[in-house]
Design brief:
13 strands; alpha/beta; about 450 residues
Amino acid sequence: MQLYSFKISTIWKRSYKGVEWKPCVNMSTGVLPESNGFIFIEANGGLNQQRTSICNAVAVAGYLNATLVIPNFHYHSIWKDPSKFGDIYDEEYFIDTLANDVRVVDTVPEYLMERFDYNLTNVYNFRVKAWAPTSYYRDSVLPKLLEEKVIRISPFANRLSFDAPRAVQRFRCLANNVALQFSKPILTQGETLVNKMKGLSANNAGKYVSVHLRFEEDMVAFSCCVFDGGDQEKQDMIAARERGWKGKFTKPGRVIRPGANRLNGKCPLTPLEVGLMLRGMGFNKSTYIFLAAGPIYSANRTMAPLLEMFPNLQTKEMLASEEDLAPFKNFSSRMAAIDYTVCLHSEVFVTTQGGNFPHFLMGHRRYLFGGHSKTIRPDKRKLAVLFDNPKLGWKSFKRQMLSMRSHSDSKGFELKRSSDSIYIFPCPDCMCRKNKTTASAT
């Protein structure tokens, strides 16, 4: 019996001008010169915004020949996760991997802290503008570092331009693709779930689809879009906005236009819309899907149609026991790291909303899969028009979805432009050409 209307392994057909890419990150072997001082940064945001901060901090420390202190994770009222660096990442591996390129220590030495009454808040803090060029760090930060021997940069997310010299990009590549590994408990749990998904999809050579669904209450509320929950949804969203962003959406003159938001592709896809899109793209009821998501808004109601279309859909909560997830349950970043691991190793990754999670995954998958992201990125503006057209038949809708899927394939290989994120586009800074063939893109 044929379980799939097509083989998942046949989705990706494009190549980059007949060239395959491979990981290509050079690591130093020599001895580092004497350090210019210590840099302490505070990483804010969720899992992958913190990852941006860590990698950029490594790049800045390497560029300034400074010693990086293990970053502190800022506790955020939205994420509500008190995890430390070592709870999310393998700290020892991180320090050892970078040893010949960037010095990393877990604390500022006592002889320096004594000068500041053992209080880091007394250390000089730079308020760096977003996307600052490397010249700013050379001309403004380095002199103060040489003078003080220890400085703080807080907050630090997105405080380094993506348009940086090749030497700086090398540090980013090394941190993101080599040095940062999840902590052993997260890695073990994640790999266990990957193996379970491969086992369940054994009839398709262990290949499965992962979907990042952003339909949590805070996402729905922040989008200012209207779905089909009626008065109850309206009241829930008003309360959620006030809880998370006090007064932001009720300022005088603030006008919320849900219809315009939807037409502009700003609304998160509902579980129903995701199901229709995937069925239109050729995935059928036998497809095994791993769903990466937080608590879905009004899940009993909103998830029902997606589960009916894809009864083999799995989540980490369905694959693992409560006991297995207990060490991670109350920590949003640790749970997100498990989702990240299972999505990373899927044959197809489907992103339904922008953000750091899918962006890092796309780049990481490019790094692992020869330069191709193997990611479906739907055009939400186009989807809004199609979903809202009552005259559109299934055949026409399916034709549009297959075209959208093919477009994602054609965009799988993309080279980084100067202003692009190296974490989304690792070619060519973090990768090099593996071979040249006479084959052309199909």
